[in-house]
């Protein structure tokens, strides 16, 4: 069979999609539903640049898929466009810190955005100090207000140095300035910063709440109008996808990925409408993908704690424990034994900065908030007071993914 014939067959196949790109997780619609307050609050903070003032640094927190990045990029795009119309010197640079996870890489990426026509040889190969001076000189000489959006900020390895240098850079800039909008899934990341860095921040903070099932249903309906043929999605399938995503995490990306995969399954079966069955089948594929995405963006020590829980869960699989009352509990771990094993894992992997028991408890709370583990107090029938921990996801998968990232 010729390639021409294969492509001809694929091209002529019926599909439920009108524009598949509009149901992809990276697509941002013009109208962001249920984030009006966040849009208004961020806009108010950065709008002082229009009057020639430097805005406060801003830190945005929330679970993955709660609209932090989309909302920020929406506001920044609007601010820069308005500034251009008014002939104001306002620039914005966006950096994904998971990809650019060091101060040097962040400065390099920022300069590439500020000087899009410049050849790489102008910047590449120079020190971080040179790139910093180049960045400050640009802002100072052009009297520009630069708002630097640092997405997944907690992934930066030399975060203290980066934040301190950016915040203190304004001492050298009489007109204009550099402000940071930091985006993170981790509410606690700032606590690990050096005291001098924290004192220089001058920041405001905002938390993005998860979406509920009704909000997710409305978000899906908005996307469906753009992405699917008329009547290609059964209303029951929309409600089911929204309910699954709300139950799992309140993550809009989960709901969108469910519907995307359900559409692909309908196409593969040659069916004209997406039904509950397609959504249920899609869940099997999407669930693991979403979990592994969430795991990969955790801060380093949350990864280490989760990795420890996965190791212990595999080691103790099927052994269970019995309360004094006779009640059996399968595949549960004691909080204390997890912490002791975490200390051993850190030593084995050469992580010198083992966190205290207090921070360990905070990380356990975070992992439970993400839906990766389940905890419960020991209660009656157990000698002493402790917390039981149970892994809610596939221990083997978690171990495989985190070993690649932590061990290499």
UniProtKB/TrEMBL annotation:
<keyword id="KW-0235">DNA replication</keyword>
<dbReference type="InterPro" id="IPR036388">
    <property type="entry name" value="WH-like_DNA-bd_sf"/>
</dbReference>
<dbReference type="InterPro" id="IPR050311">
    <property type="entry name" value="ORC1/CDC6"/>
</dbReference>
<dbReference type="InterPro" id="IPR015163">
    <property type="entry name" value="Cdc6_C"/>
</dbReference>
<dbReference type="InterPro" id="IPR014277">
    <property type="entry name" value="Orc1/Cdc6_arc"/>
</dbReference>
<dbReference type="InterPro" id="IPR055237">
    <property type="entry name" value="Cdc6_lid"/>
</dbReference>
<feature type="binding site">
    <location>
        <position position="223"/>
    </location>
    <ligand>
        <name>ATP</name>
    </ligand>
</feature>
<dbReference type="Pfam" id="PF22703">
    <property type="entry name" value="Cdc6_lid"/>
</dbReference>
<dbReference type="InterPro" id="IPR027417">
    <property type="entry name" value="P-loop_NTPase"/>
</dbReference>
<feature type="domain" description="AAA+ ATPase">
    <location>
        <begin position="54"/>
        <end position="210"/>
    </location>
</feature>
<feature type="binding site">
    <location>
        <begin position="66"/>
        <end position="70"/>
    </location>
    <ligand>
        <name>ATP</name>
    </ligand>
</feature>
<keyword id="KW-0547">Nucleotide-binding</keyword>
<protein>
    <recommendedName>
        <fullName>ORC1-type DNA replication protein</fullName>
    </recommendedName>
</protein>
<dbReference type="Pfam" id="PF13191">
    <property type="entry name" value="AAA_16"/>
</dbReference>
<comment type="function">
    <text>Involved in regulation of DNA replication.</text>
</comment>
<feature type="binding site">
    <location>
        <position position="211"/>
    </location>
    <ligand>
        <name>ATP</name>
    </ligand>
</feature>
<dbReference type="GO" id="GO:0006260">
    <property type="term" value="P:DNA replication"/>
</dbReference>
<dbReference type="InterPro" id="IPR003593">
    <property type="entry name" value="AAA+_ATPase"/>
</dbReference>
<dbReference type="InterPro" id="IPR036390">
    <property type="entry name" value="WH_DNA-bd_sf"/>
</dbReference>
<dbReference type="InterPro" id="IPR041664">
    <property type="entry name" value="AAA_16"/>
</dbReference>
<keyword id="KW-0067">ATP-binding</keyword>
<feature type="domain" description="Cdc6 C-terminal">
    <location>
        <begin position="306"/>
        <end position="402"/>
    </location>
</feature>
<dbReference type="Pfam" id="PF09079">
    <property type="entry name" value="WHD_Cdc6"/>
</dbReference>
<comment type="similarity">
    <text>Belongs to the CDC6/cdc18 family.</text>
</comment>
<dbReference type="GO" id="GO:0005524">
    <property type="term" value="F:ATP binding"/>
</dbReference>
């Amino acid at each position: 069979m010729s390639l021409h014939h294969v492509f001809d067959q694929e091209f002529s196949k019926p599909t439920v999609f009108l524009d598949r790109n509009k149901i992809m997780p990276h697509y941002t619609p013009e109208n962001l539903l249920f984030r009006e307050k966040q849009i208004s609050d961020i806009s108010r903070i950065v709008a002082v640049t229009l009057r020639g003032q430097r805005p406060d640094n801003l830190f945005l927190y929330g679970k993955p898929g709660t609209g932090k990045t989309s909302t920020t990029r929406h506001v920044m795009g609007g601010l820069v466009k308005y500034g251009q119309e008014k002939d104001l010197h306002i620039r914005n640079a966006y950096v994904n810190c998971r990809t650019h996870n060091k101060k040097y890489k962040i400065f390099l990426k920022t300069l590439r955005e500020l000087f899009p026509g410049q050849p790489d040889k102008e910047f590449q190969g120079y020190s971080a100090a040179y790139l910093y001076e180049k960045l400050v000189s640009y802002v100072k000489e052009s009297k520009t207000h630069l708002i630097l959006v640092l997405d997944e900020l907690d992934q930066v390895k030399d975060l203290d140095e980066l934040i301190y240098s950016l915040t203190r850079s304004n001492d050298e800039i009489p007109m204009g300035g550099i402000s940071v909008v930091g985006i993170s899934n981790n509410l606690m990341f700032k606590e690990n910063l050096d005291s001098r860095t924290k004192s220089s921040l001058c920041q405001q903070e905002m938390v993005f709440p998860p979406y509920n099932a009704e909000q997710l249903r409305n978000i899906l309906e908005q996307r469906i109008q753009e992405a699917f043929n008329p009547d290609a999605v059964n209303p029951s399938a929309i409600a089911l996808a929204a309910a699954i995503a709300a139950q799992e995490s309140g993550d809009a990306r989960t709901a969108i990925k469910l519907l995307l995969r359900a559409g692909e399954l309908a196409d593969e079966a040659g069916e004209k409408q997406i039904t509950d069955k397609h959504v249920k089948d899609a869940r099997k594929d999407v669930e693991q993908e979403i979990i592994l995405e969430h795991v990969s963006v955790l801060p380093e020590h949350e990864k280490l704690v989760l990795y420890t829980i996965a190791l212990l869960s595999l080691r103790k699989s099927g052994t269970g424990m019995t309360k004094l009352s006779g009640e059996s509990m399968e595949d549960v771990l004691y909080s204390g034994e997890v912490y002791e094993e975490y200390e051993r894992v850190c030593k084995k992997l050469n992580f010198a900065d083992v966190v205290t028991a207090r921070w360990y408890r905070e990380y356990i709370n975070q992992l439970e908030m993400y839906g990766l583990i389940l905890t419960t107090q020991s209660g009656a029938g157990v000698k002493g007071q402790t917390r039981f921990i149970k892994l809610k996801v596939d221990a083997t998968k978690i171990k495989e993914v985190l070993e690649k990232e932590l061990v290499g």
